[in-house]
Amino acid sequence: MTVTSRLARCSGVFAASLLAWAIPSASVCAAESPVAAQPAFTDQQVSNAYIYLLARLLVMRQQQLDFQQGMTWNHLVHRKPGAVDWPNPNLDVAYSEAWIAVDEHSCTQVSVPKITDRYYTVQLLNGWGETLANINERAFADHPYGEFAVCLKGAKVDLPANTRRIDLPVRTARVLTRIELGADWQVAEQLQHRFSLRPTGSPRLPAVPKGPMFELYKLPAVEAFDAALLALEEPDLNPGMALLQADVRGIAGQIKQPVERERIDRQIRTHASAALASAASTIGPGTLRNGWVRPAISGAYGSDYLTRTLIDLGGIWANTSAEVNYYRGARDADGQVLDGGQSYTLTFAPEQLPSGFARYFWSITATNSKTFRVLPNALGRFLLNRQSDLHYNADGSLTLYFGPQLPQGAAENNWLPTIADEPFRLMLRYYGAKGPVASGEYFPPALVRL
Predict the structure, then answer these.
(1) Which of 158, 173, 344, 345 has the fewest CB atoms inside 10 Å of its own CB, making it the most exposed?
(2) How far is CA 408 from CA 20, 340, 379, 398, 403, in A?
(3) H/E run at residue 313
(4) Is the entire prediction scored with pTM above 0.85?
(5) Is 154 exposed, middle or buried (0-12, 13-18, 19+ CB in 10 A)?
(6) Mean pLDDT across the stretch 415-433?
(7) Matching CATH number, 77-199, of 2.60.40.1610, 2.40.50.320, 3.40.50.2000, 3.40.50.1970
């Protein structure tokens, strides 16, 4: 494309119509000076590079929020149940959070209490939202509790006796502990506070990378590439990313020219945002059945950067399917988007009760489809699970209800309130999935609008 044709396209106001959470419309093109022509990145290249980069920016955004709220390196923060601030948290667990920094001369020790008959894990993630390791009795059957040391691979560090070393390929990581609340929250919180972190030495503490800050329903456009080079300093451990990273760097250089910046901004606001919105309906290559989507993969993504970005956007810190399986419900049996002003039923047959497919526990939450936050309500009820004292039907089936008011004849304990005029979505989780859920053959029944 010539400079003249580029300038001709900047003659008016450009606006793009997207989903509610997507990128806002563009502004009027600014006056620009002619520059030497350069090879233009195609719409597809810009779209792919933007979607790839967005995953890293979402993690950078959350890291900045964490440190703004008082986090410090190598210090575990114990959250009260429900008191976490990221999209789609699991409210069945008590969370503790940290960012750790390790180097060639210092590891971070992790103390894990002995826990029996209750789900727990210590999840370690990198700066792209990829799960690096889990510490629990499943991953370390011969050392399920006690002392662990998270170290930079190759680090020369003397560790105390009876310490299990876990090598990481990166210098910083996100730590997320989960402990099942179960029927006795007090015991869960006591166990939660027995987890601890401490460095073995004096690691070099890195600066928190500064990227664009934005709302999840108002994503950045061309300004995403202003932080691209800093974002790419975090290693992407997955194969086949070199060409995408080369395009990200090339676009970051090209937007220094005003004409190109405006052109690439338009490409993002049209092609990239449309591609992202379209892919969101099925979580990329996920499977849609009965109005429910099961992602193709979670927690560790390999070359599937599209799914990684979508999950970082709608449910950051997702774990691997070995730990938990996710189903997202956003449409009813007729294919219509779930409406918070309407009421719906979800009925599980006796042979397909959620408890039968989870070794540990299951839960279902309702969140705003724009902000991904749970729906406030007078009952203070944000999920249904096995502790909800659910009422079962005479034939052994289970019917759950979702709507702004309790439907006539419904058991109140089976009801999760929604909000009128707010589209919502459901998240059904199976921790320690088994049977057809673990194999991927199962999908929940369709939601029926009353």
Answers:
(1) 158
(2) 32, 17, 18, 16, 12
(3) helix 305-315
(4) yes
(5) exposed
(6) 95
(7) 2.60.40.1610
